Amino acid sequence: MGSPPRREGGLPPGQRLQRGWPVTHYGPVPRFRPERWEFRVFGATADGDKTCWNHEGFSGLPYATVIADFHCVTKFSMLGVEWGGVAASTLAKLAPPADDVTHVMVWAEYGFSANLRIEDFLDDKSVFATHKGGEPLTAEHGFPVRLIVPRLYAWKGPKWVRGVEYMTADRRGFWEERGYHNVGEAWREQRYSYQEQPGDGPEL
Ligand SMILES: Nc1nc2c(c(=O)[nH]1)N[C@H]1C(S)=C(S)[C@@H](COP(=O)(O)O)O[C@H]1N2
Ligand SMILES: [Mo]
Protein backbone atom coordinates (compact mmCIF):
# COMPACT_ATOMS: atom_id res chain seq x y z
CA MET A 1 0.00 0.00 0.00
CA GLY A 2 2.96 2.40 0.42
CA SER A 3 2.87 5.51 2.55
CA PRO A 4 -0.57 6.94 3.12
CA PRO A 5 -1.36 10.21 1.35
CA ARG A 6 -3.42 11.96 4.00
CA ARG A 7 -3.76 15.25 2.22
CA GLU A 8 -6.59 17.64 2.79
CA GLY A 9 -7.69 20.76 1.04
CA GLY A 10 -7.71 21.19 -2.70
CA LEU A 11 -8.83 18.70 -5.26
CA PRO A 12 -7.69 15.08 -5.26
CA PRO A 13 -6.46 13.73 -8.61
CA GLY A 14 -9.12 13.54 -11.31
CA GLN A 15 -11.73 15.59 -9.40
CA ARG A 16 -13.35 18.89 -10.42
CA LEU A 17 -15.19 21.53 -8.44
CA GLN A 18 -18.94 21.53 -8.52
CA ARG A 19 -21.38 24.36 -8.05
CA GLY A 20 -24.43 23.28 -6.13
CA TRP A 21 -24.92 19.82 -4.72
CA PRO A 22 -26.08 17.12 -7.12
CA VAL A 23 -28.14 14.20 -5.87
CA THR A 24 -26.63 10.78 -6.59
CA HIS A 25 -27.98 7.47 -5.42
CA TYR A 26 -29.38 4.14 -6.48
CA GLY A 27 -33.11 3.53 -6.05
CA PRO A 28 -35.91 5.66 -4.59
CA VAL A 29 -35.75 8.21 -1.76
CA PRO A 30 -37.18 6.54 1.34
CA ARG A 31 -40.00 8.18 3.25
CA PHE A 32 -39.05 9.06 6.82
CA ARG A 33 -41.42 7.50 9.36
CA PRO A 34 -40.28 8.70 12.80
CA GLU A 35 -42.38 6.15 14.69
CA ARG A 36 -40.67 3.28 12.86
CA TRP A 37 -37.18 4.73 12.63
CA GLU A 38 -34.36 3.45 14.75
CA PHE A 39 -30.58 3.59 14.61
CA ARG A 40 -28.99 0.32 15.65
CA VAL A 41 -25.40 -0.52 16.57
CA PHE A 42 -24.84 -4.27 16.49
CA GLY A 43 -22.42 -7.05 15.56
CA ALA A 44 -19.15 -7.38 17.49
CA THR A 45 -19.87 -4.88 20.25
CA ALA A 46 -17.68 -4.67 23.36
CA ASP A 47 -20.40 -5.99 25.70
CA GLY A 48 -22.15 -8.24 23.16
CA ASP A 49 -25.34 -6.14 23.30
CA LYS A 50 -27.04 -4.02 20.67
CA THR A 51 -27.66 -0.31 21.15
CA CYS A 52 -30.76 1.30 19.62
CA TRP A 53 -31.84 4.91 19.45
CA ASN A 54 -35.18 6.14 18.24
CA HIS A 55 -35.23 9.46 16.42
CA GLU A 56 -35.72 11.49 19.57
CA GLY A 57 -32.86 9.67 21.27
CA PHE A 58 -30.55 10.03 18.30
CA SER A 59 -31.37 13.73 18.02
CA GLY A 60 -30.27 14.14 21.65
CA LEU A 61 -26.78 12.75 21.10
CA PRO A 62 -23.83 15.19 21.32
CA TYR A 63 -23.79 17.46 18.27
CA ALA A 64 -20.56 18.45 16.58
CA THR A 65 -19.66 20.34 13.43
CA VAL A 66 -16.94 19.34 11.03
CA ILE A 67 -15.57 21.29 8.07
CA ALA A 68 -14.66 18.85 5.36
CA ASP A 69 -14.52 18.14 1.66
CA PHE A 70 -16.81 15.81 -0.29
CA HIS A 71 -15.57 13.80 -3.26
CA CYS A 72 -17.89 11.77 -5.48
CA VAL A 73 -16.29 9.03 -7.55
CA THR A 74 -18.12 10.44 -10.59
CA LYS A 75 -15.53 13.27 -10.22
CA PHE A 76 -17.40 16.15 -8.67
CA SER A 77 -16.10 17.59 -5.41
CA MET A 78 -17.23 20.18 -2.90
CA LEU A 79 -14.66 21.81 -0.62
CA GLY A 80 -15.00 23.20 2.90
CA VAL A 81 -18.53 22.04 3.63
CA GLU A 82 -19.86 22.44 7.18
CA TRP A 83 -21.46 19.22 8.36
CA GLY A 84 -23.30 18.91 11.66
CA GLY A 85 -24.27 15.76 13.46
CA VAL A 86 -22.90 12.99 15.65
CA ALA A 87 -19.19 12.26 15.28
CA ALA A 88 -18.61 8.60 14.46
CA SER A 89 -16.06 8.51 17.28
CA THR A 90 -18.75 9.72 19.71
CA LEU A 91 -21.07 6.97 18.56
CA ALA A 92 -18.27 4.43 19.05
CA LYS A 93 -17.76 5.71 22.61
CA LEU A 94 -21.46 5.37 23.40
CA ALA A 95 -21.67 1.91 21.80
CA PRO A 96 -18.09 0.60 21.74
CA PRO A 97 -16.74 -2.08 19.39
CA ALA A 98 -15.01 -5.20 20.68
CA ASP A 99 -11.20 -5.08 20.65
CA ASP A 100 -10.92 -7.29 17.57
CA VAL A 101 -13.16 -5.20 15.33
CA THR A 102 -11.36 -4.32 12.08
CA HIS A 103 -14.20 -3.03 9.88
CA VAL A 104 -17.72 -1.70 10.04
CA MET A 105 -20.66 -2.12 7.71
CA VAL A 106 -22.88 0.94 7.64
CA TRP A 107 -26.45 -0.01 6.76
CA ALA A 108 -29.08 2.23 5.20
CA GLU A 109 -32.70 1.98 4.10
CA TYR A 110 -33.48 -0.66 1.44
CA GLY A 111 -30.39 -2.67 2.40
CA PHE A 112 -27.83 -0.24 0.96
CA SER A 113 -24.49 -0.76 2.72
CA ALA A 114 -20.89 0.41 2.70
CA ASN A 115 -17.92 -1.23 4.41
CA LEU A 116 -15.21 0.84 6.05
CA ARG A 117 -11.98 0.13 7.86
CA ILE A 118 -12.44 0.89 11.56
CA GLU A 119 -9.72 3.57 11.38
CA ASP A 120 -11.55 5.38 8.57
CA PHE A 121 -14.80 5.11 10.54
CA LEU A 122 -13.13 6.53 13.68
CA ASP A 123 -11.35 9.34 11.80
CA ASP A 124 -12.00 12.62 13.61
CA LYS A 125 -13.75 14.00 10.50
CA SER A 126 -16.19 11.11 10.12
CA VAL A 127 -19.66 12.27 11.09
CA PHE A 128 -23.22 11.00 11.00
CA ALA A 129 -24.49 14.21 9.50
CA THR A 130 -27.97 15.53 10.17
CA HIS A 131 -27.18 19.04 8.94
CA LYS A 132 -25.24 20.78 6.20
CA GLY A 133 -24.39 24.46 6.51
CA GLY A 134 -26.59 24.64 9.61
CA GLU A 135 -29.70 23.39 7.79
CA PRO A 136 -31.24 19.95 8.23
CA LEU A 137 -30.47 17.62 5.32
CA THR A 138 -33.15 17.35 2.68
CA ALA A 139 -34.77 13.98 1.98
CA GLU A 140 -32.75 13.48 -1.24
CA HIS A 141 -29.48 14.12 0.58
CA GLY A 142 -30.17 11.60 3.32
CA PHE A 143 -32.52 13.03 5.96
CA PRO A 144 -32.59 12.25 8.82
CA VAL A 145 -28.97 11.07 8.88
CA ARG A 146 -26.19 10.17 6.47
CA LEU A 147 -22.56 9.32 7.00
CA ILE A 148 -19.76 11.62 5.82
CA VAL A 149 -16.22 10.20 5.64
CA PRO A 150 -14.28 12.98 3.94
CA ARG A 151 -11.14 11.03 3.06
CA LEU A 152 -13.12 8.38 1.19
CA TYR A 153 -15.26 8.75 -1.92
CA ALA A 154 -18.82 9.67 -1.08
CA TRP A 155 -20.34 6.26 -1.86
CA LYS A 156 -18.71 5.21 1.45
CA GLY A 157 -21.18 7.58 3.13
CA PRO A 158 -24.62 6.03 3.02
CA LYS A 159 -27.63 8.32 3.09
CA TRP A 160 -30.64 7.33 5.25
CA VAL A 161 -28.43 5.38 7.67
CA ARG A 162 -30.17 2.96 9.99
CA GLY A 163 -27.35 1.00 11.55
CA VAL A 164 -23.71 0.21 12.12
CA GLU A 165 -22.45 -3.37 12.24
CA TYR A 166 -19.08 -3.97 13.88
CA MET A 167 -17.14 -6.69 12.07
CA THR A 168 -14.08 -8.76 12.92
CA ALA A 169 -13.35 -9.39 9.21
CA ASP A 170 -13.97 -7.35 6.10
CA ARG A 171 -17.01 -7.85 3.87
CA ARG A 172 -17.95 -5.86 0.77
CA GLY A 173 -20.84 -3.43 0.79
CA PHE A 174 -23.24 -2.57 -2.03
CA TRP A 175 -20.93 -0.71 -4.43
CA GLU A 176 -17.83 -2.58 -3.31
CA GLU A 177 -19.46 -5.73 -4.74
CA ARG A 178 -20.32 -3.89 -7.96
CA GLY A 179 -17.03 -2.62 -9.27
CA TYR A 180 -15.98 0.11 -6.86
CA HIS A 181 -12.79 -0.02 -4.83
CA ASN A 182 -13.02 -1.74 -1.46
CA VAL A 183 -11.12 1.04 0.35
CA GLY A 184 -11.97 4.14 -1.71
CA GLU A 185 -9.44 6.76 -0.58
CA ALA A 186 -9.92 9.84 -2.74
CA TRP A 187 -6.31 11.05 -2.44
CA ARG A 188 -5.08 7.66 -3.65
CA GLU A 189 -7.64 7.73 -6.44
CA GLN A 190 -8.93 4.30 -5.42
CA ARG A 191 -11.99 4.36 -7.67
CA TYR A 192 -12.50 0.85 -9.08
CA SER A 193 -12.09 -2.68 -7.82
CA TYR A 194 -9.69 -3.54 -10.67
CA GLN A 195 -7.20 -1.13 -9.03
CA GLU A 196 -7.18 -3.11 -5.79
CA GLN A 197 -3.88 -4.45 -4.53
CA PRO A 198 -3.51 -7.62 -2.46
CA GLY A 199 -4.74 -6.79 1.05
CA ASP A 200 -7.15 -4.05 -0.08
CA GLY A 201 -10.18 -6.28 0.33
CA PRO A 202 -11.84 -9.69 0.29
CA GLU A 203 -11.82 -11.49 -3.04
CA LEU A 204 -14.61 -10.61 -5.44
N1 LIG B 1 -28.47 4.91 0.82
C1 LIG B 1 -27.64 5.33 -0.17
N2 LIG B 1 -26.64 6.17 0.15
C2 LIG B 1 -25.79 6.61 -0.80
C3 LIG B 1 -25.91 6.18 -2.14
C4 LIG B 1 -26.96 5.28 -2.45
O1 LIG B 1 -27.14 4.84 -3.60
N3 LIG B 1 -27.82 4.89 -1.44
N4 LIG B 1 -25.03 6.63 -3.09
C5 LIG B 1 -23.75 7.15 -2.62
C6 LIG B 1 -23.03 7.90 -3.63
S1 LIG B 1 -22.42 7.01 -4.94
C7 LIG B 1 -22.75 9.24 -3.51
S2 LIG B 1 -21.76 10.06 -4.62
C8 LIG B 1 -23.36 10.05 -2.44
C9 LIG B 1 -24.07 11.22 -3.01
O2 LIG B 1 -24.63 12.01 -2.01
P1 LIG B 1 -25.54 13.23 -2.42
O3 LIG B 1 -26.67 12.70 -3.27
O4 LIG B 1 -26.01 13.82 -1.15
O5 LIG B 1 -24.68 14.15 -3.22
O6 LIG B 1 -24.26 9.30 -1.66
C10 LIG B 1 -23.85 7.99 -1.36
N5 LIG B 1 -24.79 7.44 -0.43
MO1 LIG C 1 -20.97 8.48 -6.09
From TrEMBL:
PANTHER family: OXIDOREDUCTASE MOLYBDOPTERIN-BINDING DOMAIN-CONTAINING PROTEIN, PROTEIN-METHIONINE-SULFOXIDE REDUCTASE
Domain called Oxidoreductase molybdopterin-binding: residue spans: 27-175
SUPFAM superfamilies: Oxidoreductase molybdopterin-binding domain
Gene source species: Streptomyces polygonati
Membrane-spanning segments: none
InterPro entries linked: OxRdtase_Mopterin-bd_dom, OxRdtase_Mopterin-bd_sf
CDD domains: arch_bact_SO_family_Moco
Protein's UniProt name: Sulfite oxidase-like oxidoreductase
Stretch list, region Disordered: 1-21
Gene3D superfamilies found in the cross-reference section: Oxidoreductase, molybdopterin-binding domain
Pfam families: Oxidored_molyb (PF00174)
